[in-house]
Specification:
By secondary structure, this protein is of the alpha/beta class. It has one domain: Alpha/Beta hydrolase fold, catalytic domain (Rossmann fold). It contains 13 helices and 7 strands. Helix 11 links the parallel strand 6 and strand 7. The N and C termini lie far apart (38 Å).
Length: 275
Amino acid sequence: MIHDLRGDIDYDETGQGPTIVLVPGSCSTGAAWRPMTSHWNGAFRCVTTSLLGYGRTAERRTADNTDISLEAEMIETVIKRAGTRVHLVGHSFGGLSSLAVALRHPELLHSLTILEAPAPEILRHTGEEQHYSAFRNMTGAYFGAFQSGQANAIAQMIDFYGGAGTFEGWPQRVRDYAVDTTAVNVRDWASAYGFALTPALLSKVATPTLVAWGANSHPCVKRANELLGRSIRGATSAAVPGAAHFMIATHARELAGMVAGHIGQTAYVHATLSP
């Protein structure tokens, strides 16, 4: 735990070796990374946290201020607590927030991995109206259901990402947590829509970057991440066969290998360029 003047922040670490900071998505905590970290067998120093309003991380946003810089500041505090430059890995909204860190403070990072970020604004800024509308239609229906008092409104968002029946297939405690944090997730989406991603902005990312998405994910989600990978100079892009949005649980082995490979390649490049 980090006791910060702006509110407590989840912090945990295991293993030794190069430091990876792992940022989960919405409705989740650092525990979401266990399926992946187990495949590394302690080869990395894995630092985990939770986004604002989840786990033991205090909310800093308000209805009037959902700027993604607030998420980025929290992640930067975690990195500074780690005490070294890190390999930053983020899933879903954690990936989008990690991208904000790379734009703000690249000096904190050795590498960046974005695992299927919700990035609707890159679609809007590249004229992908059909895909952008798919995001907007989903969130409009979801927000409307929540505001009208529908208890399981968040199931619409989760099934959009994972496919019909995903929410009902989750254990009860996981469903309960998603329902309990719906108001926080609504702020996450406000943050995402407020993050004005353009190809010109993304071209400024100087950190070696891997962007991955599920081959079976929603078409608009896949397209958004394809555009992220295309717009970030030198980025490596990959679709994970058979995977959808919740791939850090369903395809942990494949992703663990992919991330380790990206980190290894980054280390090789740094060693080659060193005097």
